[in-house]
């Protein structure tokens, strides 16, 4: 593998084979151009040379011009294709740390207060408890928005502060899993340009739930949660037209979008994050069968964090609405992962996800064998028999009746489809 001094690579040139950092991590796929700002960013991050089995060549100007024209015609804010990875900060670099500390304090305080309020409610008052779980979830959305915005404007990521926030989130999930896992993204989230924030929070919640099921040590759980919150950080250095469009991407665009894992890795390393977290972010699109990217790793070559993030990232993407698709039900998402077509995912991680959310995930509406309709409220030892709340029935205290399903008369027959669920929710509002 040959080495190439970054400052000697001509602007706009590409390589005939993939380009690597440190002879191991892919920076660019073959044919992807080096821009002057990309080179400046690499030098700023401390890289002096890159490696490739190919040779330097001129880029395909015609293909790049197609990308530029598409970027111009998309109805999003204008971002130049040549500014990828520039990450120029807009804010003052010397602003005191007080703002970041206050954001952390606000999030942690809100989460702890919500946990306290949930414990104060009667266990049977699911609605009240869910309301406080939703408040904690919204606080998480605000916090991740702050973290990402802070990085864009100040190029600042504080591992200590983010770890403290993840620690609080991990504790909240452990105590209130059945409430937080039942929160679903709103249908209009598909039109939200900040869907990455929602995706990151849900991925972190699922990842921490899996980690708890696998009985990971607290320090490892916090690392996993940090990696989940930041696994898409590389995308904010890319033109939003690449990931906020419903059209088919050109090959060059797909290759450009796939660099977000490498960009994310570089961002975290540049901000002194532990290598274990950075590698998890770097590998969240690797697949067990070697068909992922950026290094096409197989099986045990993928880190544990990478394995978990690949599962939760896919599960969240399947079960959440996007600008280019409607959401599938959480049950459909679980079934799709259980099929594990082409052996893409680690079986142990999939099993841990199913044990966390059950085969009929928390929040789903289901038909029972006795003809009644219920909503799944909590997982059980047997993923086929979760705890459910019967619709329209009350217990002695006047709260919705909660029961344990089984494989006989209280067996779950099927999950309500989207149309049936919407009709049910409308009826319940009357």
From TrEMBL:
SUPFAM superfamilies: HD-domain/PDEase-like. It comes from the Bacteria. InterPro entries: HD/PDEase_dom, HD_GYP_dom. Residues 174-369 form the HD-GYP domain. The keyword Hydrolase applies. The keyword Hydrolase applies. Gene3D superfamilies: Hypothetical protein af1432. It holds the Pfam family HD_5. Coiled coil: none annotated. CDD domains: HDc (cd00077). Keywords: Hydrolase. GO terms for molecular function: hydrolase activity. SMART domains: HDc (SM00471). This is Metal dependent phosphohydrolase.
């Amino acid at each position: 593998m040959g080495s190439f001094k970054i400052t000697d690579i001509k602007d706009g040139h590409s390589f005939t084979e993939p380009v690597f950092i440190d002879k191991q991590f892919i920076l660019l796929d073959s044919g992807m151009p080096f821009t002057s700002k990309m080179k400046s960013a690499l030098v700023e991050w401390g890289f002096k040379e890159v490696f490739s089995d190919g040779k330097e060549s001129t880029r395909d100007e015609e293909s790049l011009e197609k990308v530029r024209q598409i970027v111009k015609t998309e109805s999003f804010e204008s971002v130049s294709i040549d500014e990828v990875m520039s990450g120029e900060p807009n804010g003052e670099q010397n602003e005191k740390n007080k703002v970041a500390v206050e954001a952390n304090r606000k999030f942690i305080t809100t989460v702890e207060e919500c946990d306290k309020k949930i414990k104060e409610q009667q266990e049977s008052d699911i609605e009240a408890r869910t309301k406080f779980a939703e408040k904690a979830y919204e606080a998480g959305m605000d916090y991740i928005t702050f973290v990402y915005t802070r990085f864009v404007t100040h190029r600042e990521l504080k591992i200590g502060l983010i770890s403290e926030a993840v620690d609080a989130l991990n504790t909240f999930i452990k105590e209130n899993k059945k409430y937080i896992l039942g929160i679903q993204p709103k249908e209009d989230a598909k039109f939200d340009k900040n869907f990455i924030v929602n995706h990151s929070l849900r991925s972190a919640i699922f990842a921490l739930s899996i980690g708890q099921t696998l009985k990971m040590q607290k320090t490892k759980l916090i690392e996993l949660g940090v990696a989940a919150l930041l696994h898409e950080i590389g995308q904010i250095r890319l033109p939003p037209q690449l990931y906020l469009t419903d059209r088919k991407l050109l090959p060059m665009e797909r290759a450009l979008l796939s660099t977000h894992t490498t960009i994310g890795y570089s961002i975290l390393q540049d901000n002194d994050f532990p290598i274990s977290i950075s590698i998890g972010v770097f590998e969240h699109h690797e697949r067990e069968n070697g068909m992922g990217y950026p290094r096409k790793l197989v099986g045990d070559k993928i880190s544990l964090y990478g394995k978990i993030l690949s599962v939760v990232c896919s599960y969240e993407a399947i079960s959440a609405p996007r600008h280019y698709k409607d959401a599938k039900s959480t049950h459909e998402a679980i079934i799709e992962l259980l099929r594990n077509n082409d052996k893409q995912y680690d079986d142990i991680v999939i099993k841990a996800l199913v044990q966390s959310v059950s085969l009929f995930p928390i929040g789903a509406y289901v038909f029972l064998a006795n003809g009644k309709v219920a909503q799944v409220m909590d997982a059980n030892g047997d993923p086929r028999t979760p705890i459910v709340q019967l619709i329209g029935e009350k217990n002695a205290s006047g709260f919705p009746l909660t029961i344990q399903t089984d494989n006989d008369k209280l067996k779950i027959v099927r999950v309500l489809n989207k149309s049936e669920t919407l009709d049910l929710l409308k009826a319940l509002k009357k």
